[in-house]
Design goal:
single chain; 2 domains; seven-stranded mixed sheet; six-stranded mixed sheet; 8 helices; 16 strands; binds zinc ion
């Protein structure tokens, strides 16, 4: 796929992105986060807006405050409440007195925003798009840059460097498809994602992302023409991954597709297949998932879930 790369960005300092917009790349590199989470600082008439304070890291919070300098930080937007975007928000809110704004229904149990946002809200010059799929509380923010270009802060919904993980139950593949299809009807010139460099001509990548998801879905349906499948062996057949994390990520992805097809009435779910070959099962949490025992139990039972076509053709 036509993803972008960039050299490791300088740490701890704001890097110019576009006129009036800088980013600080947090020091949390990884398979899910690339060089780290992008924290954006956007200059407006009333001061600075921050999009995604970043991971819980005191040094990162200090770097944001230093970069702000004399400019007042007016608001902290979250694209979603995953830890690598939300973690620094409480400390930054405390240090600045700025409110935290995010989707009105938080996916993070211990957190609710100071101001809940919803589709179509306009605040500080930003227009809110509700884009669940990667996360149930995912928002994108549309904004006009000083040079007149139309921007979309696209979070982890669309990233220049990688496709997004869609892991049920919080991740929802049908919503993710709809969110991508919707972006094709919009006219933003540039996307600024949660990780990776800025993306020009963004609809080309959105089309490519949809194309690959649809191809994966066709492969799943072809396999189901032959027989019923449990998630784990179907993922093993389609992905051939040996790395336990990648194997688990593949299983989450296959499950997400199957649940989308189920919601559309194309496949049905049967009782779990408890007699699977242990080689196909993966107990490692995929990157980005927490590794608590409860999650491992969910990973295990999800991998046993079994699906078939609603009607064989
Ligand atoms: Zn992220």
């Amino acid at each position: 796929m036509a993803f972008l790369t960039e050299p490791e960005p300088q740490r701890g300092v704001p890097l110019p992105v576009l006129p009036g917009i800088r980013r600080i790349v947090a020091d949390n590199p990884g398979v899910m986060t690339y060089h780290g989470t992008n924290t954006y600082l956007i200059e407006g008439e009333d001061g600075l807006t921050i999009i995604d304070p970043g991971p819980p890291d005191d040094a990162h919070v200090r770097d944001i405050l230093t970069a702000a300098g004399d400019m007042k930080i007016r608001r902290l937007f979250l694209t979603h409440t995953h830890k690598d975007h939300y973690g620094a928000a409480p400390a930054l809110a405390q240090a600045t007195g700025a409110p935290i704004l995010s989707y009105k229904i938080s996916a993070r149990a211990e957190f609710s925003p100071d101001m809940g946002l919803d589709e179509g809200d306009v605040t500080g010059g930003f227009t809110v798009l509700y884009t669940p799929g990667h996360a149930s509380d995912h928002l994108c923010y549309a904004f006009q840059a000083q040079d007149g270009r139309r921007l979309l802060f696209s979070g982890d919904h669309v990233m220049s460097w990688s496709s997004s993980i869609v892991s049920p139950p919080e991740g929802d593949m049908l919503a993710y498809y709809r969110g991508l299809e919707r972006l094709l009807t919009r006219d933003e010139d540039v996307y600024l994602g949660g990780h990776g460099p800025l993306l020009e001509e963004p609809r080309k990548l959105v089309e490519t992302l949809l194309f690959h998801r649809r191809a994966r879905e066709r492969a799943i349906l072809e396999a189901l023409q032959e027989q019923e499948w449990a998630v784990a062996p179907l993922a093993a057949k389609l992905y051939q991954k040996t790395d336990p994390w990648l194997k688990a990520a593949a299983q989450r992805n296959v499950l997400a597709h199957l649940l989308k097809l189920k919601e559309e009435g194309i496949v049905v779910e049967y009782g779990p297949d408890t007699d699977l070959h242990p080689d196909t099962l993966s107990f490692a949490p995929p990157p980005g998932m927490r590794a608590e025992s409860r999650e491992r139990t969910v990973l295990y039972s999800d991998s046993l879930r079994r699906f078939g076509l609603a009607r064989r053709t």
